[in-house]
Task: inverse folding
């Protein structure tokens, strides 16, 4: 199916953050600004996109520190931090024009919230036939979780604690639980998270049940969660910090038993593949793995609401509020 050339090369409606806590639907070009491609272009009609609540909340509130303006750019971002900016990276759609083998296929792209867009062919990944398009909006979050486990290097039989059960925390715990012999505990102060944790086969608690874990992931986004993570890590164990605080200052308790336990505090960020994986892995292969892993029907429990694209200006503030209930929020086009 071919689009009219004026439609294909023209504008589309996209979500723009225009000021602290403010946004609107406005026009954006269909074709991305990236032109360094030898593989041709595809035009995609969006079906769904997912809101990455932690990062997008910081963008929405203007809390991206100036030092990170370039590193924080989304792959197809338009505008500059702090505002106005078109930001997002979890778009699922159908290819309506492009190479014949892609036309009509469902694809995932690290593209903002926009109705129609045209990107280089290599920027889209085919969604496996056994993964519903509605669930594929979780791919970017699962990619982050995969990278977190790569950074952590868990081993068979580890006692693992995950502190903070947003989407990424739940996905980290779900992946870690599949390691043979691993004992995984997932904790959150919000008792409502029990439902999702148990749906994924996880052991849920509101506080740690021991203080000698082999490996601890912190994913809560709150400094108090990092304090908890450090307090229960065992001798010579590792705490992997997966929360990103934007411009907020964080106090970390590096006194007490931090040195005597010889703890390692390790950052993890999805923007770079760990060096030991780089000879064999690239971003495309990592995303294909994430999409393949989304075949598990239980992961639908991570999507806790949906909104029509046209309604975003009225509801985005509520979606990004820390209400204790929202996990992944899906946008329908």
Result:
């Amino acid at each position: 199916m071919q689009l009219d050339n004026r439609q294909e090369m023209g504008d589309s409606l996209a979500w723009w953050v225009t000021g602290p806590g403010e946004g609107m639907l406005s026009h954006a070009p269909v074709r991305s600004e990236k032109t360094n491609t030898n593989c041709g272009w595809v035009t995609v009609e969006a079906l769904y996109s997912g809101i990455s609540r932690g990062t997008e909340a910081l963008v929405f509130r203007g809390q991206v520190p100036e030092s990170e303006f370039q590193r924080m750019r989304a792959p197809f971002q338009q505008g500059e931090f702090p505002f106005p900016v078109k930001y997002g990276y979890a778009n699922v759609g159908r290819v309506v024009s492009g190479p014949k083998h892609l036309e009509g296929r469902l694809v995932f792209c690290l593209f903002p919230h926009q109705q129609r867009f045209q990107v280089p062919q290599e920027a889209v990944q085919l969604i496996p036939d056994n993964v519903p398009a509605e669930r594929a909006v979780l791919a970017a979050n699962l990619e982050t979780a995969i990278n977190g486990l790569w950074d952590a290097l868990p081993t068979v039989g580890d006692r693992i604690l995950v502190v903070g059960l947003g989407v990424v925390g739940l996905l980290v715990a779900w992946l870690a639980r599949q390691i043979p012999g691993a004992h995984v505990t997932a904790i959150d102060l919000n008792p409502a998270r029990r439902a999702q944790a148990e749906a994924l086969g996880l052991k849920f608690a509101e506080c740690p049940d021991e203080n000698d874990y082999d490996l601890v992931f912190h994913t809560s986004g709150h400094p108090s969660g990092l304090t908890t993570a450090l307090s229960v890590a065992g001798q010579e164990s590792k705490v992997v910090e997966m929360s990103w605080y934007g411009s907020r200052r964080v106090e970390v308790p590096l006194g007490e038993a931090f040195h005597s336990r010889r703890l390692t505090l390790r950052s993890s960020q999805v923007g770079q593949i760990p060096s030991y994986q780089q000879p064999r892995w690239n971003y495309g292969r990592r995303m294909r793995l994430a999409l393949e892993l989304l075949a598990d029907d239980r992961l639908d429990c991570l999507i806790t609401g949906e909104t029509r694209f046209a309604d975003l200006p009225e509801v985005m503030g509520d979606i990004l509020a820390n209400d204790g209930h929202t996990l992944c929020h899906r946008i329908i086009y």
Notes: The two ends are 19 Å apart (CA to CA).
